[in-house]
Design a protein that fits this description.
This protein has 653 residues and is mainly alpha-helical. The chain is 53% helix and 5% strand. It has 26 helices and 10 strands. It has a 4-stranded parallel β-sheet with strand order 4-3-5-6. A 4-stranded parallel β-sheet has the order 8-7-9-10, with helices on both faces. The longest helix has 31 residues.
């Protein structure tokens, strides 16, 4: 009776502290801006099953199996710990009321799962002590942190106390169903030589150890990074369902502040992200900026937002300074918006959107951005393209061949040339190759010539939402006035912007990337291709915007296979895990002055395969990889898939 009273008092106190800790975090989270995240209920529930209970992204790394075991041990032992707490309040409250056919397998399951959890915790501790992977380390987090070992120690103590308690009871002969508890029975065997009085003492000590550790563990959760145990399931449920993850529009009415300067300027879901981050470091392991020595770590960005939020205004402005609880401009401008961090995160934290909104604050509220962007923004505002070339010269790329004008109501396909195709001499070769292919296939196509406008993708990624908004509205209106039904682009950035971002501006047309069109033409037999062997071993590089953001991996590979007679070689990191060329997120227009150049890092990764030709499906990637090959002094052919297809078409006569 005395034990029940003491435990009841401790439980009430611990529960009160736990509720207070959760309430404080919830209050901070709800201080964020409102955002609707309750649509498509069944899709959200399916995501919880796949990503939370199925641990899909956790299992993408080999050691994820260890976390999978700990997670499911936690889930299974919720029932066992529920019985422990109930019986602590009243010894008569236990699972013994269940029929033996159910109770016995449950006892076996609790025993087996407790052993697996103990082994998994031991493996995790040894890994952190002797073999900590690089991605566990950051400026503010250590693989050998006291908090990590405290949590692992708590779990280990709970399992050991469970075995000792049940072992002592088995040795006393007071534990029914002992046959179904092999590990506890083994513990009972070791304790069997003790006197009954000593066994009672051992059982009582083990019971109180289990009780105190359980209550302490419960109260550590809301006050540490391990709060993700409580928040990750709702975080996955409230994830963004759109693919790709589109930036929100700004309200440009008078007196409105733009972007994010303070942690509470984020939405409640952004703040939930910060409490759901397990700080595992997988995001920085795949981040091209971090991996090439830039100051950005996606994990640190999320960590700093959380620290700033918890400080409740005591750290000043979130954006601009450097250090824990702040996000510096150097960090924010290093991001290539490749989405690798968000794609790998087991908790489905949305990193890139947070970086973009802080960039918006720097650009639109403080006019504080890298020097080279002054020229870029001026070119876009005055001449409507990043190169700063007169708009009247937009169609000069086609001077060497016949290019049709798009005629409303008669032309089926609009070939959206894009700024790279119009103004970059290297990318113009790709456009000319594409035109020859479309003519050979008999497609009814045309261009807008000088009436075409820049899609504004780089403006949006660089945080200049005001200029993007004006450009997008004008461009969408132009396309609608021409009655465009189908659009084909060579640039994945134009493809994604026209297809996804422009929906908010009333755009209602099909958008195809040229890889998709070429794959369809080749597979339908509308192109006579003679696979050309002049390219040798072809290595394919996935553009982030086409692949990871828009899930198109198969089409460009099918084009290479049809044009070369075999599937291309693959980088070690390819498909969903492809590594960025370094030009995304507006970085195409900025210099890399810190660390290794991302494009050279990407190129060197593929050189081990000894390719003869490096192939891609993006003008930015083409430029970056060709520059990297020149910097390395390599005689390596770098081609777009359209150029390879045009050669195969020529070979076929």
């Amino acid at each position: 009776m005395m034990r029940s009273i003491c435990f009841g008092i401790l439980l009430a106190l611990a529960t009160g502290f736990f509720v207070r800790g959760c309430r404080d975090r919830l209050r901070l989270m709800l201080a964020g801006r409102s955002e609707a995240r309750r649509d498509r209920l069944w899709e959200r529930l399916r995501g919880v099953v796949v990503y939370a209970f199925g641990q899909r992204r956790v299992l993408r790394r080999k050691f994820g199996r260890n976390h999978f075991i700990i997670f499911w041990a936690f889930m299974v032992l919720l029932l066992a710990n529920g019985e422990f707490v109930a019986s602590g309040l009243n010894p008569a409250w236990s699972l013994d009321f269940l029929p033996q056919a159910l109770l016995c397998p449950l006892r076996f399951l609790f025993d087996a799962v407790s052993l697996l959890a103990l082994l998994a915790v031991g493996a995790a501790a040894l890994r952190r002590i002797f073999f900590p992977p690089d991605y566990l380390e950051s400026r503010y987090v250590s693989a050998r942190s006291g908090e990590a070992f405290l949590i692992l120690g708590f779990i280990a103590l709970l399992m050991l106390a469970y075995f000792v308690l049940n072992g002592a009871r088995i040795a006393l002969g007071s534990m029914p169903n002992a046959f179904w508890m092999p590990v506890s029975r083994m513990a009972g065997h070791f304790l069997g030589g003790l006197s009954p009085r000593t066994l009672h003492g051992v059982a009582e000590c083990a019971w109180w150890l289990h009780a105190v550790v359980l209550l302490a563990f419960m109260n550590v959760l809301p006050r540490s990074k391990h709060m993700h145990i409580l928040t990750v399931i709702p975080n996955i449920f409230f994830r963004k369902l759109e693919q790709p993850d589109l930036p929100p529009r700004e309200d440009f009415s008078s007196g409105t502040a733009f972007g994010v300067a303070d942690s509470k300027d984020f939405t409640w879901k952004d703040l939930l992200d910060t409490f759901s981050c397990a700080e595992c470091g997988r995001c920085q392991e795949v981040c091209p900026a971090f991996q090439t020595g830039k100051p950005l770590s996606p994990r640190d960005i999320v960590h700093n937002i959380k620290i700033h939020l918890l400080a409740e205004g005591k750290l000043g402005q979130l954006v601009g300074a450097f250090g824990e609880g702040h996000c510096s401009g150097e960090e924010l401008w290093s991001c290539t918006a490749c989405g690798a961090c968000q794609n790998i995160c087991p908790a489905l934290v949305e990193h890139p959107g947070k970086i973009l909104r802080m960039r918006r604050f720097l650009v639109e509220m403080q006019a504080h951005f890298p020097e080279e962007l002054y020229g870029f923004f001026e070119n876009m505002e005055q001449r409507g393209n990043p190169w700063g070339i007169m708009p009247a010269e937009r169609d000069r790329w086609a001077a060497a061949q016949t290019v049709r004008e798009f005629v409303p109501g008669k032309t089926e396909w609009l070939v959206y040339v894009g700024c790279a195709g119009a103004f970059d001499t290297r990318c113009q070769q790709v456009l000319r190759a594409l035109c020859r292919i479309l003519d050979a296939a008999g497609l009814n196509w045309g261009t807008l010539g000088n009436a075409e406008l820049c899609c504004g993708e780089s403006l949006r990624r660089l945080g200049n939402e005001y200029m993007f908004e004006k450009m997008a509205q004008e461009n969408a209106r132009c396309l609608q006035e021409h009655g465009v039904g189908k659009v084909m682009t060579v640039c994945p950035h134009c493809f994604s912007t026209l297809k996804n971002d422009y929906r908010a501006y009333g755009a209602d047309f099909e958008v195809w990337h040229h890889s998709q069109v070429l794959a369809h033409l080749a597979q339908s037999g509308r192109l006579r291709l003679a696979p050309a062997d002049r390219w040798g071993k072809v290595l394919y590089h996935d553009p982030c915007t086409l692949g990871r953001h828009n899930r198109e991996f198969a089409a460009p590979r099918a084009v290479v296979a049809a044009s070369c007679g075999q599937m291309p070689l693959e980088f070690p990191r390819h498909g969903e895990e492809g590594f960025c060329c370094g030009a995304g997120g507006g970085r195409m227009w900025m210099e890399e002055s810190t660390g290794e150049r991302i494009n050279r890092t990407r190129l060197r990764e593929g050189l081990a395969l000894a390719p003869d030709t490096l192939c891609t499906a993006c003008p930015y990637c083409l430029i970056m990889l060709e520059d990297a090959a020149k910097d390395e002094g390599l005689d390596l052919k770098v081609r777009d898939i359209a150029e390879i297809t045009a050669q195969a078409l020529q070979e076929a006569g």
